[in-house]
Amino acid sequence: MSEYILETKGLTKKFKNQIAVDNISLSIRKNSVFGLLGPNGAGKSTTLKMITGIMKPSAGEILFENHPWTRKDLKDIGALIENPAIYPNLTAMENLKLACTLYGLPKMRAEEVLNIVGLEKSGKKKVKNFSMGMKQRLGLGMAIINNPKLLILDEPTNGLDPIGIEDLRELIRSFPSKGMTVILSSHILSEVAQVADEIGIISNGVIGYSGKIKKEDNLEKLFMDVVERNRGEN
């Protein structure tokens, strides 16, 4: 049995004459946190959208649990990409209960998740009255409602205050012990360095580094080296 839950092989995405993601090959170990680092516009979100089926690859292959990815695999994948898919006129609890219905889960799962993401005191409040940080928390709750094997988080700390960021960090670190693999994308090096077991650095659509983080590594230098090396290649 493969030690990887997800592998991409030569993953490529073209928009007319522009190559947004260029021949990316990644291997994500089961029950780990993988950090996808890169500057804004590097191709992080496009890569994650292909993995979650939002976008169709122009070329390449995606393997999930050692078989070619199909839409059936979405039942085992949770994702928070860009704006959370939540209904502003419903309460937090109503949004989560609706997600439970879609997945065929018992309604008590909504209450469990509300506690996990720290919104237990705001469950009856309409989402349109939420702060950006509270919406992010609810979005995370929607992403983990089905207890996914793979959780994909794209810039999840947007709108969170320092306490919220620390809480999220601890939450992310707890997921692998619960059988959940996490792919965390960010342009903030320190955010990823504190939670990731391995990282991939993407710049200009190209993966310039992929591997484990060592304490002696100068992550900022490694990041800048990759960015400079791939600047202007496409």
TrEMBL record:
Question: What Gene Ontology terms describe what this protein does at the molecular function level?
Answer: ATP binding; ATP hydrolysis activity
**Xref: SMART domains:** AAA (SM00382)
Q: Which residues form the ABC transporter domain?
A: 6-229
Q: Which UniProt keywords apply?
A: ATP-binding, Nucleotide-binding, Transport
PROSITE patterns per UniProt? ABC_TRANSPORTER_2
Q: Which SUPFAM superfamilies match?
A: P-loop containing nucleoside triphosphate hydrolases
Q: Which PANTHER family match?
A: ABC TRANSPORTER, ATP-BINDING PROTEIN
What protein is this chain from?
Lantibiotic protection ABC transporter ATP-binding protein
Q: Which organism is it from?
A: Anaerosalibacter massiliensis
